[in-house]
Design goal:
1 helix; mainly alpha; 64 residues; Membrane protein; single chain
């Protein structure tokens, strides 16, 4: 009777470990998603700044 109960206990512990790891993966995936969104906003802002600078430079070149 010991071995079947031991196998059930080991199976339960294994499922608990997998559950904890799944939660950690979920949390890290959400954190990565937030970082990707932040990076996309920064890239868009830099692209807008570059576009404004290019328009300004083109205007300055035209006035020469």
């Amino acid at each position: 009777m010991f071995w079947p109960m031991f196998a059930v206990a080991v199976g339960f512990v294994g499922l608990a470990v997998l559950g904890v790891l799944a939660v950690r993966v979920f949390v890290e995936a959400r954190r990565l998603g937030a970082q990707v969104a932040d990076s996309a906003r920064r890239i868009n802002r830099a692209a807008e700044d570059l576009e404004r600078a290019a328009v300004s430079a083109a205007g300055a070149a035209e006035s020469l």
